[in-house]
User: What shape does this take?
Amino acid sequence: MRRGVSFKIPNAYGSYLSEILRPIEVERYTWLVGGEESYVVGNDGIDPLFQEPTVMEGGPFTDLITHGEQYLIFVDLKAFLNGPITEIETYEAFLSSPCDLAVLIVDSMFVDIYCKNPRMIDHLYEHMLACGFADVTYLTDANDSRTKLTIW
Assistant: This one.
């Protein structure tokens, strides 16, 4: 069974979050933001992209990720369309939760996206290939070695 998509992004400043999430109607979701280490690049240097762990509605979240460049080191995002916003730590918990999508970025370049919708998984896969990201593969029950849906 397909769980999601795995790929690599360049270890560089860019608009990678907005590019990665382009196939998704980001504004429709409420986002649980882990508050890990990522930065927004400005004229005066870099500032934290996410100040702390928080819950963000889709509109403000979209504004944040689409303005300017970021440097993503560690990212832990969970998207909820309906239901209570709760921490999701394992794939099994993800399956039984109201969380629809999980985006995990580790060490600035390793990206795993977990999604419950099989058609969206295919859209994400095709989109990442079209973006030219490296090592795009499906995450499956057979090849997913992640035991937690967190970055730590």
